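Margin note from the TA: students keep mixing up input and output lines. Inputs are the sequences; the output is the structure of the whole complex. Example:
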Amino acid sequence: MKRHWLIWALVLAVVLVALIPVGRWEARRHARHEIAGIKRVLAAIGPLDSSSLDAYRKGVGNPGLDCLLYKRGTNPFALEICFDAAGRVVEGYDRRGSGPKIWSLREDPTASTVRIDYAQAEALLARLQQPA
Amino acid sequence: MTVRVAPYLVAACVLAAAAGSSIQRQLFDVGRPARWVLLAALVAYALVVAWPRRHALRFPPRTALALAAFCGLALVSIAWSVHARGTAERAVVQAAVVAALVALVALRADDVGLGLVDGVVAASGIVAAAGFLYWVISPSQAVLHATTEYGSRFQGIEQSPNTAPALYSIALPLAFGRMVSAQGRLRLLLGAVVLALAASLAASGSRGGLLGAYAGVFAVCALAPLTWRRRFAIAAAAAVALTLSAVAFALPKSLPAKPLPTPTHTVTSPVAEAVLPLEQEIGNPWWTRRQGDAHRSLFSTSVRLRALRGSVQLALERPLLGFGFGAEQWAFFNRYYAFNSGNPENGYVGILLQTGIVGLVLFLVAVGACVRAGLTTWFRRARSPVLLAAVGGATGALVLGISESYFHGVGSIEWLPFWITLLVCAGAARVGA
């Protein structure tokens, strides 16, 4: 009887260890999906300093992200990217439809491989922060 | 040694957790570190008591396997967690404490289960009494003042009106179950605890806590070895108490909301956070073009449902194994209009988010095995007062999980009582060594 349960415990341990590559694969797959969405938002925005740059956010959430927002038509917040201090684009927002489409790696910013010129982005933020 | 120490140790653990979430600064500073020390003491105590009798420990093996599978998944999820350190801390404490409680209830000494349950009941009575005392001394601190969402709510010594009620929703059925089978002075004492917990719950306006507590009380009513007349009389009294609590919830009026300008996409400020905050985006009037209404009534659930829907969608982005056990606070972002929480406020969705479908299934199997063991034992007429109380407590805990995400929350006020009620249920099953 004791041996019987020992075998079960061993099987359980093997199955649990076998789940590790599955969990990691799922994490990578999720990151790829979010990165693809963020890239689509960046492509829709075009150059960061385009004339449609309309609004900003500074130090939102944890980690504190900075964001640049671009207008399309009458929608002032149509497209948005949020980036961290390392220049990694962590979030992308597409608000051109009837609700927001959000791609986010805020839970693990290091997983983002999408980068922007941080100095340029901060210069654009500084310009927006100046009183009109 | 077993009988004498268990209730004090459990009570100390629950009290430290209550202090660790207290609004009172001195209590908070003591409680935060003390809860880890006391949980470690509980594990050490279980080891010292159970090791010499390790060959005589009796616990349903399938239930043990189910618990091991869930705790094991929590441990291996460190490998894919979005916050490996947070997952490691929670998974190790969870596995150690669950193993310790299993060892204690597997001693098969009736007094051990009783000691664990009484420890929770005693600590809850002390928390309720401390809350009342704090209200007498410092009424403005013990009450959360009215907002545009809620009327004023009693919070006692805790930081939120929902914190202590989470404990009471498990402890009230435990105390009630113990009271039903107790005699003499003990019954009077338990009756006083039941009244104190019920009054605190009613004053807190915590809907989830109220629902869990009375679900547990009705479970005790249904199972208790009473005549049908007494059973109906007690159930009717509980129904009246529930109704009065609901009326008490509706009495304090929320503040009148200032009329908001009609939402428009015409923006004059470049500060997007002032117009459409990221933490209030989904369901925001900016999108709906309607006036935002955040007022909460007894039955309103739209805000929670919005967050719940979003949480399920987020969980399905990593559907199999989730974001890592205990990593809920890093995986979940509150993007929901009028929702004021850092988690989905649903324990089952919380487990789905952290450990995926595999983890949720393992969790439900483990919980189901514990409850099934307790109910099977009860219906085989192996009835003990502690089992009755534990089944009531487990019912309250599982119903509470619909409105609170706490199953993974090691060190939180309701986490240890949750596992105690479940494992006392499981430990009641008749099994070989």
